Amino acid sequence: MNKVEIKHLTKIFGRKVNQALKMIENQQSKKEILAKTGATVGVYDASFEVKEGEIFVIMGLSGSGKSTLIRLLNRLIEPTKGQIYIDGQDIAKLDHEGLREVRRHKINMVFQNFGLFPHRTILENVEYGLEIKGVDKATRVQKAEQALDNAGLLDFKNQLPNQLSGGMQQRVGLARALANDPEILLMDEAFSALDPLIRREMQDELLDLQAKVKKTIIFITHDLNEALRIGDRIALMKDGQIMQIGTGEEILTNPANEFVREFVEDVDRSKVLTAQNIMVPAITTNIELDGPNVALTRMRREEISMLLAVDRNRNLKGIITADLALKARKENLPLSAVVETEVPTINKDMLVTDIFNIIYDAKTPLVVTENNRVLGVVIRGSVIEALAETNEGQETPVTESEEVVHG
């Protein structure tokens, strides 16, 4: 279900808006438009949807339009044209009173600078949004304390902001936004002022908090690694236009154009790519139908020494080695009687960086399963290639233990 839907949203700053729009349509650059019209293209023809409970990241370099875009969503900046739907209501058409209600009850924003009142306690800071909404004292204290507890800050409620670290102050800002119980949380470069270690901790805390509160979050960043780490989907912007929208995996593996390709080329792919991206087809034997001779013939034809044993529904049952198949033929046994059930399995969403720690000591490839159904196998060579970002066309040696169960 879509919580937010943006259609053809555009913002041109300055005069000669119509002339600027025509120049954009004619593929003229942002610099050319500024030089000829004096108008600045903030955002042009942005369209996307954000699902309920999703972390949707908008990212780009300085001047790409990402901060303008997020301010258009709650009309801190007025759009030149386009629609902004929240729960099906176009807030671009709301009057001041209607917009005030949306900001009070549906949307809250967390900025890069924490914006805490220095002479108010942490609890009083978190209460503030509820106070201006006219919520009674007892209720707002209860809600503020709950928000602080969720953020792990309840013990600090009576301290002043300057008694807390930068990371803790940012957590207070996040708690203050969540105390109002908004349906949508806008976060504009919320962690960029923090040093790298605290920034990573805040990313972890946001993900942990999101698992509890399940808000719809639109997060602005210029940091690709941050976007890949926290975003369910990412919109990549350049010169006010959206270049590509997709999951981190989709953007890394199928960049939409040269700009996107260059933008993502230095990212650590092992922290984004998953088993699903690097697995290869599994060669199997159906132990409900096949006998030892069929299994041995398949091994000989594929030049391998092991098959995955599955049932009619491709549910994993184990492994059949050449020795086990020979034993079954010699003793006139079905394959099900000799199957080796101990086989290492992984989820299709496991990151390559985590797979490496498992496959390093594994004697066989790792079987990728979903609800026990075989999807494919991951071999050591594929993991090493992903980790090393081997160029296309280069070959990575495969050890003997990998020359099994895959084609």
What do you see in this structure?
- There is one protein chain.
- α5 (122-132) runs parallel beside α7 (166-179) and α15 crosses α16 (380-388).
- Residues 390-404 have low confidence and may be disordered.
- The protein starts with a strand and ends in a 19-residue tail after the last helix.
- The protein is built from 16 helices and 16 strands.
- It is an alpha/beta fold and 407 residues long.
- The protein has 2 domains: 2-106 and 182-267, Rossmann fold (3-Layer(aba) Sandwich); 275-402, CBS-domain, CATH 3.10.580.
- CATH second-level architecture of the largest domain: 3-Layer(aba) Sandwich
**Whole-number tally of structural domains:** 2
| CATH uppermost class of the largest domain | Alpha Beta
Mean pLDDT: 84
Spatial order of strands in the largest sheet = 6-7-8-3-9-10
Assign the CATH topology of the largest domain: Rossmann fold
Q: Tell me the CATH superfamily of the largest domain.
A: P-loop containing nucleotide triphosphate hydrolases
Q: Largest beta sheet, briefly?
A: 6 strands, mixed
Number of strands: 16
β-sheet strand percentage = 15-25%
The low-confidence parts are 390-404
User: Count of helical segments?
Assistant: 16
Q: Rough shape?
A: globular
Structural class: alpha/beta
Distance between the termini: 40 Å
Query: What value does the Rg take, in angstroms?
Result: 27 Å
Helix content: 25-40%
Organism: Enterococcus columbae DSM 7374 = ATCC 51263
GO molecular function: ABC-type quaternary ammonium compound transporting activity; ATP binding; ATP hydrolysis activity
Family: Belongs to the ABC transporter superfamily.
Keywords: Amino-acid transport, ATP-binding, CBS domain, Cell inner membrane, Cell membrane, Membrane, Nucleotide-binding, Transport
